[in-house]
Amino acid sequence: MATNENLPPNVIKQLAKELKNLDETPPEGIKVGVNDDDFTTIFADIDGPAGTPYENGVFRMKLILSSDFPYSPPKGYFLTKIFHPNISNTGEICVNTLKKDWNPTLGLRHVLLVIRCLLIEPFPESALNEQAGKMLLENYEEYARLARLYTGIHAKPKSKLKQGTISESTKALNVDPRNASAQKADLVNSLASTGGPPTLTTTSKGTEGGSGGLDTTLPSAVMKKEGALKVHAEKKKIDARKKSLKRL
Prior knowledge:
The protein has 248 residues and is of the alpha+beta class. 38% of the residues lie in helices and 11% in strands. Strands 1-2-3-4 form a 4-stranded antiparallel sheet. A hairpin with a 2-residue loop joins strand 1 (30-35) and strand 2 (38-47). It has a single domain (4-247), classed as Ubiquitin Conjugating Enzyme, CATH 3.10.110.
């Protein structure tokens, strides 16, 4: 197991400062946890943004820091299964911030905000999950329906991250036993109708050096984007009511 000894003292000091700040003033929708003896693996629970197919879900992910961090970017993985163009079946995250746009001055807060932004605005042009990317471009309603199914089955709230030791058992996904069977049956039927489960296909667009995922300037617009999504959802409800009244 990697330990803090793998990181230079100045990096450990900076990470400890960042983690304390994240704990005291967490970003909206993000809760961070770490093993005090191993800062090289950082866990986070990300709330699915309102107005997206991931709403009401809690997605656990981790950042793995290399021994030469911060000169090389961390590697990001979702531990909770998710149907998303820029997240592979193994959980790998494709986003420019963790690849060609990495800058040693970027902090963990920025990285986590960018990843949450990816749930608001996917980039199908640089898909690691090509089925999800193609579906998003050609049939958004079907994409959203399938993404909601994954969210309902896999992204149930977990035990909260706490300070201290966090083991690999955080990969375990809690599924509500009261409706899990029905949801899984629905998911199987949906996958059958769309030609099978999502395939893991890594193209030059979705790998390091290729055209990337998310512009690193997006975190500053998270709140504005989420507000717009909520307004759009309410407008759709109002339009639906108006159509119903016209039919009467």
